[in-house]
Every structure is written in structure tokens, then in C-alpha cells.
Design a protein that fits this description.
- The protein is an all-alpha fold.
- Helix content is about 80%, strand content about 0%.
- It has 3 helices and no strands.
- Helix 1 packs antiparallel against helix 2 and helix 2 runs antiparallel to helix 3.
- The longest helix has 25 residues.
- The N and C termini lie far apart (about 35 Å).
Amino acid sequence: MTATQGWLALVALSGGSTLIAWWDGTGALVAVAILALAWAKAQIVLNVYLGLAQVPGWSRGFAIVLGLFMLAAMGLAVAAGTI
């Protein structure tokens, strides 16, 4: 993925987050959906802009830590509200 493609993907994912928030800005399901899009955006930034795609070991390590963090955040969002 080139930097331009990464930027376009980030713009699209940001637009998706905005549409989800406008559609129904409350509830755990909305929070989980927005966090999932943020997770995808973080992966793009790490792999495209920081160049971790060139170093598979580091990329995998960052992906695991980020995944655990995002799953914890999603779990807290679900625990805080009803779906």
C-alpha cells in the first residue's frame, strides 16, 4: 500500500466513523464499531507510515499489543452499556 492509498483509506475510515456517530451516537454497539474502525486506522498508520510492514516481527508485536488494547476498550464499552 502506498502512502496515497493509506491516506485515502484513512479518510474513508474516518468518514465511516463520522457516519456511524451521526447515525446513532450512543450505545455500546456504536462504540465498538467506532473502535473497530480506529483499530483499522491504527494498523494503517503503523504499517504504511511507520514502515512496520517492512519488519514483520515488529509489526506482529505491535498488532498483538494494539489488538489486546482495543479488545479491552471494546470490552469496557460493552460492560458500560447495553447493545
